[in-house]
Amino acid sequence: MADIDDYKRYNDTYGHLMGDRALRIIGACLRRVARSIDTPARYGGEEFSMLLPDTGLDGALALAERVRFDVDSEVFPAHDGALTAKLTVSVGVATFPADGREIDHLIQYADRGLYQAKRMGKNRVERVRSA
């Protein structure tokens, strides 16, 4: 699960049209990093998720880091549409079956990791272990 850091501030600064363009750019980043068997998706307002079949924890963390790095390396549209703005994402990772056998549990743990990444300074990947 990935969430755009400070997206509201970006939208407030550059407007919703540029915010929409930024969402498309981040979606393209996820598709670029995803393997053919992965399923990237927009999960909510400025959240994205990616299902990674047949992927262990190390592989999931590596792919999440590639997503984080790819977004951090992008430039995003500013006021006039010029590509001069920066955005980052915070990412939480959960794995099946270690973090749960139900989708709700996996989402819960991925979300916890995401908010841990935000608390620890944003633009990072975190995993919160299940109990």
What oligomeric state is this? single chain
Radius of gyration, rounded?
Answer: 15 Å
Ends: how far apart?
19 Å
How are the strands ordered across the major sheet? 2-3-1-6-7
Element pattern in H and E: EHHEEHEEEHE
Q: Largest sheet, if any?
A: 5 strands, mixed
**Proportion of beta-strand residues:** 15-25%
Number of strands: 7
Mean pLDDT, to the nearest integer, reads 94
Considering DSSP H and I runs of 4 or more, what fraction of the residues is helical? Answer: 40-55%
Structural class: alpha+beta
Q: Number of DSSP helices?
A: 4
Return residue spans where pLDDT drops below 50 for at least 5 consecutive residues. none
Shape: globular
Q: Overview of this structure, please?
A:
It contains 4 helices and 7 strands. The strands form 2 sheets. Strands 2-3-1-6-7 form a 5-stranded mixed beta sheet. It has a two-stranded antiparallel sheet with strand order 4-5. It is 46% helix and 18% strand. The chain has helices spanning 7-14, 16-33, 57-73, 103-119; strands at 2-4, 39-42, 47-51, 76-77, 83-85, 89-92, 125-126.
Fold topology:
Layout: E1 2-4, H1 7-14, H2 16-33, E2 39-42, E3 47-51, H3 57-73, E4 76-77, E5 83-85, E6 89-92, H4 103-119, E7 125-126
Helix pairs in contact: 1-2, 2-3
